[in-house]
Design a protein that fits this description.
301 residues, alpha/beta, Arc Repressor Mutant, subunit A, D-Maltodextrin-Binding Protein, domain 2, LysR_subst-bd
Length: 301
């Protein structure tokens, strides 16, 4: 087969189909009609002599051959995009751009929300799509599914082979309901271990807080486990629960007089949040603008 005879736009459609495993959603992703996407799927099946997606009940499953194409297709499209964008300027006041950022709800609150407040004036046509952290977040960057990953350096691979920039640091505090009858002005280690404990994880990832408490040998009387830090302000009121959260998170959401913010009765090292991106994005003007905005906001936190 000669490359000149192949419509390279088919690869864009193939990438969408393999990502969504749904013709309608793939069509929406590329802003085309469902009949057009169905026709494109037919052309792809003829091109590769493989059904690619087969119906099993109410869902479409990728064939083994289609699965083998996922990474190569994304890599090729990423390289083409990088070539096309070399030297391309980015004007935030007029250009349209969608940035996908993978981050915790904590980062979304303390860093991305201030960014969104800036966008109407600085970049009215820019959209930010925030994705929750996956079990292995860095893989999403490598697969070109995420433009930027923001997370603690401690949770990244020890031999990170991607560009990384430190953004800001934070420390941890204990929080309880203001009317908690068994907690005074201070909290000691024995009391902490006796209190019912609200364990806050980040989605499927165990919180770095829990890892550090394990390392310190801190006993917890776990009464509830939640998969989001943002749930803390809604779960603590009226209970004797104690939770550990980032200080900036507590100051943002829990300084309204309904909670007490206390120092932990043990040493918890500070945590550093940083951003990671794919090497192909380093020279991209729009991506540079985004990183610059986040770095500037991080300095003001």
């Amino acid at each position: 087969m000669q490359l000149a005879s192949v419509d390279l736009n088919l690869l864009v459609a193939l990438d969408a189909l393999l990502a969504e495993r749904n013709v309608s959603r793939a069509a929406e992703r590329l802003m085309v009609g469902q009949p057009a996407m169905s026709s494109t799927l037919g052309r792809l099946r003829s091109l590769f002599n493989d059904p690619l997606l087969v119906r099993e009940g109410r869902v479409l499953r990728a064939t083994a051959f289609a699965e083998s194409l996922v990474e190569p297709v994304r890599a090729v499209l990423a390289q083409i995009e990088a070539i096309v964008n070399v030297g391309t300027a980015f004007d935030p006041l007029t250009d349209h751009r969608i940035f996908s950022i993978m981050a915790s709800d904590y980062v979304a609150l303390v860093l991305l929300r201030p960014l969104l407040e800036r966008l109407p004036a600085l970049a009215p046509n820019v959209q930010i799509h925030v994705r929750p952290l996956e079990t292995v977040p860095v893989d999403s960057v490598r697969r070109n599914q995420t433009d930027l990953l923001i997370m603690p350096r401690e949770l990244m691979p020890s031999h990170l082979d991607l560009p990384f920039e430190e953004l800001f640091t934070d420390r941890f505090v204990c929080v309880v309901d203001k009317d908690n009858p068994v907690v005074g002005a201070e909290l000691d280690r024995e009391q902490f271990s006796e209190l019912p404990y609200l364990q806050l994880n980040q989605g499927l990832m165990t919180s770095i807080i829990e890892t550090r408490l394990d390392e310190l040998g801190v006993v917890r009387n776990i009464e509830m486990v939640a998969q989001s830090f943002v749930m803390a302000p809604f779960l603590l009121p009226g209970t004797r629960l104690v939770a550990i959260v980032h200080e900036r998170f507590a100051r943002e959401l829990m300084s309204d007089g309904h909670f007490r913010i206390l120092q932990p009765p043990f040493e918890l090292a500070t945590i550093g949040e940083g951003m990671v991106w794919a090497p192909r994005q380093t020279a991209d003007a729009g991506h540079r603008w985004l990183r610059g905005q986040l770095a500037e906001l991080a300095r003001d936190i």
